[in-house]
Specification:
- By secondary structure, the protein is of the alpha/beta class.
- The protein has two domains: 2-315, TIM Barrel (Alpha-Beta Barrel); 326-438, Sandwich (Immunoglobulin-like), CATH 2.60.40.
- The protein is built from 13 helices and 18 strands.
- The protein has helices at 2-7, 33-41, 67-82, 94-97, 109-116, 151-163, 168-175, 179-182, 204-207, 243-261, 302-317, 351-354, 433-438; strands at 13-16, 88-91, 99-100, 103-104, 124-127, 146-150, 192-195, 266-268, 331-332, 336-337, 339-342, 361-366, 374-381, 387-390, 396-401, 414-415, 418-421, 425-432.
- The strands form five sheets. Strands 1-2-5-6-7-8 form a six-stranded parallel beta sheet. Strands 11-12-13-18-15-16 form a six-stranded antiparallel beta sheet.
- The longest helix has 19 residues, at 243-261.
Length: 447
């Protein structure tokens, strides 16, 4: 499988769970480690040699601070790289792996062992930066070389598009790979794994279809699953046939996807979101091996698939959407600032406007990394009505309009002066510096 994926240019990241085992708590079965040496393999409650700590929610906590347990995990990781040729790992509840006697430690045995290992130091390392224990939320605190699931990105983007509370300043920070969280100790934008949905929680379809979780099929009286979803049903709970409701849902889904693919950092797309997969409002479907969790290939949304493919092509075509270093608002190549933020009237934002949640529309210009490359202008309108944006001087062409129907329809529209951006949508527009210079005109100064 790995060889086949590599032959198609696809890397393989293995999701690994080294934080707990199937032996559960002291009432659970003795399958292996407990029978070998309970006191070595598990972190135990102080003064309670039989009772394991439970910072994972699964009854026990694997004890990576012990050298033999650490050796077991390191041997396992090296096996997957050297024998199975995977390209990296996503570590479930990675904070648990970095716990020492006094809690999370960024210089713990496990992180130091990975850092110095010649096999593992060069692979992709992704942390889920939390567990349920004391001080279990450690987003931004893993060392250089690690990437982290960024749930602040998820919540801010959902809140901005679906609930209308997040400010432009908060969204701009997430669009720039959350430098407030990760720009330290030599870390780069790739440290932020941006996502809107994951295997835990609503799918993208359900995020715009349900205000509340519907986990009754899980057999826990709907008590399980996260209650803070920042979702919006667009006025009707569940599936419906109302054209206006469906149109709004689809437009919001496209806006969320475009935000994800236009953000600095590493985008993570939940499998199935690109084809409109639903879990019928279940946001904790781990226990459902049936239609709730399966992929309905026959009813895949081909228009949405085409739209996502188009977004990915644009991200590949414009390197300024995936910079290796941080945006700083500084002039590059002596011509343009790497990023400029603008209001619809073309003026820069004031400090007060950045933090005012009533402002729902703004734009930003990204300069190319190469001197002759094209500028890219992203216009965002999360409001409820059309907004007219004033464009910088020169000809511009629309690359993407998330309000366009059908989704993914190519839009090559020449613009000069202004452009109207529909409610709940994003427009991507480009201006070619080469084309302007060929016509004897200077590119418009960004800002």
């Amino acid at each position: 499988m790995v060889r086949t994926l590599h032959a198609e240019g696809i890397e393989v990241i293995l999701d690994v769970v080294y934080n707990h085992t199937a032996e559960s708590d002291h009432h659970g079965p003795t399958l292996c480690f407990r029978g070998i040496d309970n006191s070595i393999y598990y972190r135990l409650q102080p003064g309670q040699p039989r009772y394991p700590e439970n910072v994972t929610g699964c009854g026990n906590t694997f004890n990576l601070s012990h050298p033999r347990v650490l050796q077991l995990v390191m041997d396992s990781l090296r096996y997957w790289v050297t024998e199975m040729h995977v390209d990296g790992f996503r570590f479930d509840l990675a904070v648990t792996l970095a716990r020492e006697d006094r809690g999370f430690d960024s210089q713990c045995s496990f992180l130091n062992a990975v850092r110095q290992d010649p096999v593992l130091a060069g692979v992709k390392l992704i942390a889920e930066p939390w567990d349920i224990g004391p001080d279990g939320y450690q987003l931004g605190r893993f060392p250089s070389g690690w990437s982290e699931w960024n749930d602040r990105y998820r919540d801010t983007v959902r809140d901005f598009w679906l609930r209308g509370h997040a400010t432009m300043g908060e969204v701009a920070g997430r669009l720039c790979a959350s430098s407030d969280l990760f720009r330290h100790q030599g870390r780069k934008p790739r440290a932020s794994i941006n996502f809107i949905t994951a295997h835990d929680g609503f799918t993208l379809h359900d995020l715009t279809t349900f205000d509340n979780k519907h986990n009754e099929a899980n057999g826990e009286d709907n008590r399980d699953g996260h209650g803070h979803n920042l979702s919006w049903n667009c006025g009707f709970e569940g599936e419906c046939e109302a054209t206006q409701v469906l149109r709004l849902r689809h437009r919001l889904q496209r806006a969320l996807l475009a935000t994800l693919l236009c953000s600095q950092g590493i985008p993570m797309l939940l499998g199935g979101d690109e084809l409109g997969r639903t879990q019928r409002g279940n946001n904790n479907a781990y226990c459902q091996d049936n239609e709730i969790n399966w992929f309905d290939w026959e009813n895949a949304d081909q228009a949405l698939i085409d739209f996502v493919a188009r977004l990915i092509r644009l991200r590949r075509e414009f390197p300024q959407l995936r910079r290796a270093d941080w945006l700083a608002g500084k002039v590059v190549h002596g011509r343009h600032a790497d990023v400029v933020w603008l209001l619809p009237d073309g003026n820069p934002l004031t400090a007060a406007q950045w933090i005012d949640p009533s402002h729902r529309a703004f734009g930003f210009i990204l300069s190319p990394e190469q001197p002759a490359g094209p500028l890219l202008l992203c216009l965002i309108n999360a409001g409820v009505s059309v907004i007219r944006f004033k464009l910088p001087p020169g000809p511009w062409s629309v690359l993407l309009d998330t309000s366009a129907e059908p989704a993914g329809q190519p839009t090559i529209v020449s613009l000069e002066g202004t452009v109207d951006v529909a409610a709940h949508s994003i427009a991507l527009i480009t201006q070619s510096s080469e084309a302007l210079e060929a016509n004897g005109r200077q590119p418009a100064p960004a800002g």
